[in-house]
């Protein structure tokens, strides 16, 4: 899962009255290569967006006067962001007739219009998302941001870290105010969510300086970063003492208020899981499906697509069964893969290190293979990292954060090793190809490294179906590249693909067909080799992220369809490296625009 992109998607809330991207019109022969005025408009839009979000600035490695601040949370902030979107769109339409622009600028306009149209389609449902759940919310995102994103290279940046500690209470209080307003509308997550949030909150205020245990994760992080500074020891001691006071005097009381609120709301929460239970829940789910998949597929079509893909992958899995000599049924093979200890490393620190070492082996192998399949490869490095202890109990099994554009922070692949019984070694290879290379890290690093050749919103924005579709495509691409030499690893690849096909069934089942959490868990148990703990976590994720999980398979199938189309149309002229450039070098696009881009590349190749 692409974590930073997923978080960013919640900010893209800018009305169905806005048209989607217009069909491409041919540009006049004299069209400029790049319209300077349009570029300036997009640059001003980017700067205005950044001014509204100190957090986004930090992700972009911008360390200015906002470096010690948090974003504002609430309706006023949402309205300001939407107003900026709509004003920029109005300026664009008034000043830049589409026919006067080059094809590349037309593509930027089409992407921007699509982006705003998606945001507007979700605007009526802006108060129906969960503020706190096991995967979202300031309770875990704030500490994780400080540890992983807030760099400390000098005294001023250390003081900015302390400033963020002092004001984390305000950030949390704003989020709590939002949660109270939504509860008044009847918008509460299901009852089972609250123990996760409470547990994460308690973890944040456990350990020193809150009690006599080992250093809290945030305190330990701050000490480590300050310890590396070339400043006087007295200054280091002063900074550490200020951080300690901020944690004890500001952070702890805020988390205690949050725990009290979650305990109170838990009593009010119900046990239904799908968003069908909200006012116009059907309309909300339809809008989310359109937004995440960038298609017009409805919930019933999504559900049937999932059933069809489950059948296809089951048949491919039977081929693996024959290969390894298993003579039972597919369901019996699932049970073997789920329970046989040979497929799991020990649930110990040594076992966790084995998992990380195996991941690094596949990283090294794939790096050597990339030049044969990609014309453009990342300059940014990739770091493999365990999910921090304070949030590993509730976090997903794996996710990725993109590199900083200035090279100061690598791309980071997080793997959750809280319970090794949920992380079979058979899936290590495919999981790494999805989150690392040639998946998210390759795609997002290449996108970030496009530089000024595309507007900032294209360089740093995204579309879930494109990026997650690419990640799932990358898992299968590994097989084309000669990987998955162990048949059980190839089964792991199919298992992860099956996991994404099942998502189409259970996501639409929960939010459209009114399945219970237990029904969805049972469907996965009956149709896959997922470990029980992993199944529960996955279903709980789909419940709090309606529609998001459907984008993976939809996007992957489109990329594969376009590759097949290109191979059939071009024959000997087909070049896999050029195809990948045609997909990647535009940056993320909706699937209809991706199809247009590839069709144009095919036409150029034919004409050459």
Automatic annotation (TrEMBL):
Q: Which Pfam families match?
A: DUF885
Keyword Chloroplast (UniProt): no
Per UniProt, which keywords does this protein have? Answer: Signal
The protein's name: DUF885 domain-containing protein
Q: Which InterPro entries match?
A: DUF885
Indicate the secretion signal residues: 1-19
